[in-house]
Amino acid sequence: MAGMVPFSDREQALRRAWPFGALDDFFAPLAAFDSSDAFKMNVEDKGDSYEVTAELPGVKKDEVEVELSEGRLSISVDKKESDEDKSKDWLQKETSEWKATRGVYLKDAADEGLTAKLADGVLTVGVPKLAEAKSNVTKVTVE
C-alpha cells in the first residue's frame, strides 16, 4: 500500500517520471511565492468606509490576525493542525498546516472603529475612512 498513488496525484507522479522532473523540482520553491496559493481577498469602497473580505475556509478566528499600520491593512493566517489529527494513521491527507499574509494599502483609513468578523469561512473587515483626508503632499514653488 505504500506505493499507492492517489488518482488526484497521478499527473504529478507522471511528471516525476519525465526526464525534466528534476528541473521542475529546482524551480518548485519559486512557485511557493505565487499569490494564487494564498487566500482570496476583495476590497470594496463603500463611500465612507472600506469592506475587505477574505475567503478562509476551515480557519478558526484564533488563527487569524488583522492589523492596520500607517494605512496598510494586513491579514495573516497561521493554520495549525490539531493534536487529534496528528494521532490518526492517515493513508492520504490533503489538508496541512500553512501560513499566509495578504495586505492592501488604504490611504485614507481611520485608525479607530475597525471591525472584523469571521463567519462561514469568510472574514469581513470594516475599515472606516478618515472624515478629513490628510494630505502628505507639500507643493514647492519652483523659482
Automatic annotation (TrEMBL):
PANTHER family hit by this protein: HEAT-SHOCK PROTEIN 20 FAMILY MEMBER
Gene3D superfamilies linked to this entry: 2.60.40.790
Lineage: Bacteria, Bacillati, Actinomycetota, Coriobacteriia, Coriobacteriales
InterPro entries per the UniProt record, alphabetical: A-crystallin/Hsp20_dom, HSP20-like_chaperone, Small_HSP
Alphabetical list of Pfam families matching this protein: HSP20
Domain SHSP: 32-143
Domain of life: Bacteria
Name the record gives this protein: Hsp20 family protein
Sequence similarity: Belongs to the small heat shock protein (HSP20) family.
Signal peptide feature range: none
